[in-house]
From TrEMBL:
Family note: Belongs to the HAD-like hydrolase superfamily. CbbY/CbbZ/Gph/YieH family.
Self-association and partners: Homotrimer.
Natural source organism: Parapusillimonas granuli
Pfam families: HAD_2 (PF13419)
GO biological process: DNA repair; glycolate biosynthetic process; reductive pentose-phosphate cycle
Taxonomy, superkingdom: Bacteria
Name of this protein: Phosphoglycolate phosphatase
Function: Specifically catalyzes the dephosphorylation of 2-phosphoglycolate. Is involved in the dissimilation of the intracellular 2-phosphoglycolate formed during the DNA repair of 3'-phosphoglycolate ends, a major class of DNA lesions induced by oxidative stress.
Pathway(s): Organic acid metabolism; glycolate biosynthesis; glycolate from 2-phosphoglycolate: step 1/1
Binding-site residues, Mg(2+): D9, D11, D173
Active-site residue numbers: D9
Enzyme class: hydrolase
Known catalytic reactions: 2-phosphoglycolate + H2O = glycolate + phosphate
Length: 223
């Protein structure tokens, strides 16, 4: 395998976290007197970090009114409280993830998570889901000054792993992973089962689409 490092997205790539994110989102909306949203709608709001999710949840009102910074800050506090309560309760590891991570590790690749989810939720979730041990580095939404789709988090992860971005593989479910990895000069694979802000993954600027992390490991082994 020509890749010395593999950087994996979290939400929609390693874990299906939408049930918990939707529960916290609707608990926040209920506390603010807003009606419940379908889980599928919440899923289209995930991808650019928690603050962006909260802004989109607040902007989902009949008038399309955008929240003020003060309203966003207050709602974010409420969301955080609820998400801490449920984080991991209904999350699941996608099929093929453990098999794929084992295969990448056996092939000698250094593994990192690169997520837009804040550190306070990411680290306990990785532990709870039994995946923490696979990763030598975890770069979260608040680790760097900018989040994906900026290349900064991927470049930071490569630096921490001592890996050349050109010899590194990124795997994700969304436009944010694709654009960030492209800008970082990495090879990038997309998975179709996650949350791409409601868009078709077939339109993403990626090297290929694979059906699972296990298939991604096979794809990489052939190169
Ligand atoms: O927190 C988000 O918005 C998405 O997180 P991800 O980068 O792991 O997909
Ligand atoms: Mg994702």
């Amino acid at each position: 395998m020509r890749f010395s490092a593999v950087l994996l997205d979290l939400d929609g790539t390693l874990l299906d976290t939408i049930p918990d994110l939707a529960r916290a989102s609707n608990a926040m909306r209920a506390e603010l007197g807003m009606p419940e949203l379908p889980v599928a709608t919440v899923a289209t709001y995930v991808g650019k970090g928690t603050e962006n999710l909260v802004k989109r949840l607040l902007a989902d009102n009949p008038e399309g009114r955008q929240p003020s910074p003060e309203e966003t800050a207050r709602a974010l506090e409420i969301f955080h409280r609820h998400y801490h309560e449920v984080n991991g309760d209904e999350a699941s590891v996608y099929p093929g993830v453990v098999e794929g991570l084992e295969a990448f590790s056996k092939a000698g690749a250094a593994l990192a998570v690169v997520t837009n989810k804040p550190t306070q939720f990411t680290l306990p979730l990785l532990e709870r889901m039994g995946l923490a041990g696979y990763f030598s580095q975890v770069v979260c939404g608040d680790t760097c000054a900018r989040k994906k789709p900026d290349p900064m988090p991927f470049l930071h992860a490569c630096e921490l792993l001592g890996a050349d971005p050109a010899a590194s593989l990124a795997i994700g479910d969304s436009i944010n992973d694709a654009l960030a990895a492209r800008a970082a000069n990495m090879t990038v694979l997309a998975l179709p089962y996650g949350y791409n802000e409601g868009m078709d993954v077939r339109n993403l600027p990626v090297d290929d689409i694979v059906m699972s992390i296990a298939e991604a490991a096979q794809w990489a082994a052939a190169r």
